């Protein structure tokens, strides 16, 4: 399920931290928790799990703000409304339920230094046409792929790194395993390929999570286009759950582009 939320600014407070991904992710969790504490607790503390990894299977885009001004590490929101995309990998019966959670919901995005207040003015379910074969994907938030270095830390990889595509491919397979579904034997004969595209030129984004707190983390991702060849269930998972790492923190949200589209 793909939702587009229109947030209407309320009150005089209109300063957002540029690193708004963490408070935005926290707001999504709170929204889920207020309606269904058990589901929120499942996502936050366990998620969908394999023997090696756990996944939340939702993601969201960057905020689309038509009129703003950067003030230091803040964004002054001048637009009356802003938009946000949220993608969930859900069973059909849960989709209407989750869509209703966001209706008229208040949204407060803040840190120690500023805040901005909004209310969800509109929730729109976006179409999810069937995907098959080879799909051109456009990232709506930075996509993160990392490789563990000998010091035990993550090196965040650009799309042209030789390990980028294989690690992204494995991450998608791990997500599918975490849903409890088995990889179909016939898929062994089908291609699963990741091809980052050189145009538009990939843009690096360094995002700080929990800025100013002891748990502060800096994550580097990239905004770019790619071509993904995979069986339909894996393509659907990529679009609805996100590609790469840290999807529930606002990374790896992507959208199919029409064939031949450039913008």
Topology record:
Elements: E1 2-17, H1 21-35, H2 37-45, E2 48-49, E3 54-55, E4 58-60, E5 68-71, E6 74-77, E7 81-88, H3 92-101, E8 106-110, E9 115-126, E10 133-139, E11 146-148, E12 154-156, H4 164-178, E13 193-196, E14 203-209, E15 217-223, E16 225-230, H5 232-241, E17 254-257
Antiparallel strand pairs: 1-6, 1-7, 1-9, 2-3, 4-7, 5-6, 8-9, 10-16, 10-17, 11-12, 13-16, 14-15
Helix pairs in contact: 1-2, 4-5
Task: Give a structural overview.
The structure is a single chain. The protein has 263 residues and is an alpha+beta fold. The protein has 2 domains: 2-126, Alpha-Beta Plaits, CATH 3.30.70; 133-257, Alpha-Beta Plaits. The protein has 5 helices and 17 strands. Strands 1, 4, 5, 6, 7, 8 and 9 form a 7-stranded antiparallel β-sheet that branches. The longest helix is centred in the N-terminal third of the chain and has 15 residues, at 21-35. It is globular and about 60 Å long. The two termini are 23 Å apart. The model has no long low-confidence stretch (mean pLDDT 88).
Key features?
263 residues, alpha+beta, Alpha-Beta Plaits, seven-stranded antiparallel β-sheet, four-stranded antiparallel β-sheet, globular
Low-confidence runs of at least 5 consecutive residues: none
Largest sheet: 7 strands, antiparallel
Q: What is the tally of beta strands?
A: 17
CATH class assignment of the largest domain: Alpha Beta
Structural class: alpha+beta
The coarse overall form would be globular
**Radius of gyration, in angstroms, nearest whole number:** 18 Å
Task: Count structural domains.
Answer: 2
Binned, the helix content reads 10-25%
The ordered string of helix (H) and strand (E) elements is EHHEEEEEEHEEEEEHEEEEHE
Named CATH topology of the largest domain:
Alpha-Beta Plaits
Strand content: 35-45%
Euclidean distance between termini CA atoms = 23 Å
Mean pLDDT: 88
User: What is the number of helices?
Assistant: 5
**From the coordinates shown, what is the CATH architecture of the largest domain?**
2-Layer Sandwich
């Amino acid at each position: 399920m793909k939702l587009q939320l229109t947030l209407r600014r309320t009150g005089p407070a209109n300063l957002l931290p540029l690193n708004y991904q963490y408070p935005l992710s926290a707001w999504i969790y709170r929204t889920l928790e207020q309606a269904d504490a058990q589901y929120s607790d499942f996502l936050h503390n366990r998620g969908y799990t394999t023997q090696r990894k756990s996944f939340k299977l939702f993601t969201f885009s960057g905020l689309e703000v038509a009129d703003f001004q950067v003030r230091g590490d803040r964004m002054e929101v001048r637009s009356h409304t802003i938009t946000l995309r949220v993608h969930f990998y859900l069973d059909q019966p849960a989709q209407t339920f989750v869509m209703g959670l966001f209706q008229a919901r208040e949204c407060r995005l803040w840190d120690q230094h500023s805040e901005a207040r909004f209310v969800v003015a509109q929730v729109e379910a976006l179409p999810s046409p069937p995907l098959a074969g080879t799909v051109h994907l456009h990232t709506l938030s930075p996509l993160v792929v990392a490789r563990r270095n000998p010091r035990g830390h993550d090196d965040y990889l650009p799309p042209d790194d030789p390990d980028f595509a294989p690690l992204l491919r494995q991450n998608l397979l791990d997500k599918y395993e975490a849903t409890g579904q088995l990889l179909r034997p016939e898929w062994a004969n089908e291609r699963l390929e990741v091809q980052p595209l050189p145009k538009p030129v990939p843009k690096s984004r360094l995002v700080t999570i929990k800025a100013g707190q002891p748990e502060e983390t800096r994550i580097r991702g990239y905004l770019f286009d790619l071509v993904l060849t995979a069986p339909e269930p894996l393509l659907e998972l990529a679009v609805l759950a996100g590609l790469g790492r840290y999807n529930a923190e606002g990374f790896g949200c992507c959208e199919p582009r029409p064939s031949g589209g450039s913008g």
